[in-house]
Amino acid sequence: MTPQSANPPLLLRNARVYAPRPLGLRDLLMVEGRILAVDASIEITGLPGLHEMDAQGAVVSPGLVDTLTHITGGGGEGGYGSRMPAMPPEDAWLSGVTTVTGALGTDAVQRSHTELLAHARLLATAGVSAHIYAGNYHLPIRTLTGSVQTDLAWIPEVIGVGEVAIADHRGSHPSAAELARLASEVRVGAMLGGKQGVLSIHVGDHDAGLNVLFEAAENYPVRLSHFYPTHINRTRDLLQQGCRFAREGGTIDFTATTNAGLLAAGDVDSPLAVAEALAAGVPGDRITLSSDAYASLPEFDAEGRFLRVGMGRLDSLADAVQRGVRDVGLSFETLLRTVSLNPAETLGLPRKGRLEAGADADLVLWSEHHEVLGVISGGVVRRWPD
């Protein structure tokens, strides 16, 4: 089906709705980019330009929300040839992702926040809801306006700082005091800008793990919930530490992108990590998955020398959902929450990650085998099966 370029009112009938809570067969009425109604049967007349579509009983969920992507491309650890490309909008429609959060990552020398902001706005013009983080792996934090607080207060797309690296040889090894100070900067800037504020923490493979975050929360007036650590499935030891972090009030993020080399090095596949975290007593609403799309996935030898590089995939979120249901035995609802409602709540996006009246009209159509078949964003059909 050819994507629609206009934005007429849209009535989707006979959808098996996961909101993410399963609602059964429902009709969804979308007007001007928002969901107007979700009901068992919607009868409406007199709405000019109304377009009707039949989901034929297929599963429909909220559009996926990705809390960590490298929309301008990551990489660079292996020189210029290891720089990753920028994210094209079309990848969102293939992957079911309708909301992304862009970060710089390792390289803030050859990549900039102006470039990051410009690409977020490019994605937005194509229908992808795009946000960005100030900062990158290193302290002092680089910003667009000169301070974390003014970035958060003045720039709509900036929703936090990240990903700041800990336990990683590529980071700047921040102290607990520095991280507590930064968490307070994010908190104040977010308050001024009417945002939730997120401090995304990249966790490397050093044995220190999350120790500095526990130290910050223990010794300064900040909470574990002020930090949002990612890559928690990097090793089994880190996963166990992350479960403690979440049980004590924080939210943890598992990276959905993986490969054979990472798994051999100790990665816990993200669907399995979700199952193990739940079994360890982690509340289900404190677990998210992110793709790390367009990041480089560098491999180093025992001496820290660069060996090779792969790339993060945006479709790893939907893939993790599919494999989690098929191979791990988790419910579709459980996994769906980790890529829709939970990340939307973590980022402070009240109209994302849910299908209800007033929410943004971002939807994914799934096959019976949990493959992405179609995408609607902002009430516009971006991809749909013929």
Automatic annotation (TrEMBL):
Zn(2+) 2 binds at residues 202, 231. GO terms for cellular component: cytoplasm. This is Isoaspartyl dipeptidase. Carboxylation allows a single lysine to coordinate two zinc ions. Zn(2+) 1 binds at residues 70, 292. Keywords: Hydrolase, Metal-binding, Metalloprotease, Protease, Zinc. InterPro entries: Amidohydro-rel, Metal-dep_hydrolase_composite, Metal_Hydrolase, Metallo-dep_Hydrolases_sf, Pept_M38_dipep. Binds 2 Zn(2+) ions per subunit. Its main location: cytoplasm. The active site is at 292 (proton acceptor). One of its GO terms (molecular function) is beta-aspartyl-peptidase activity. NCBIfam families: isoAsp_dipep.
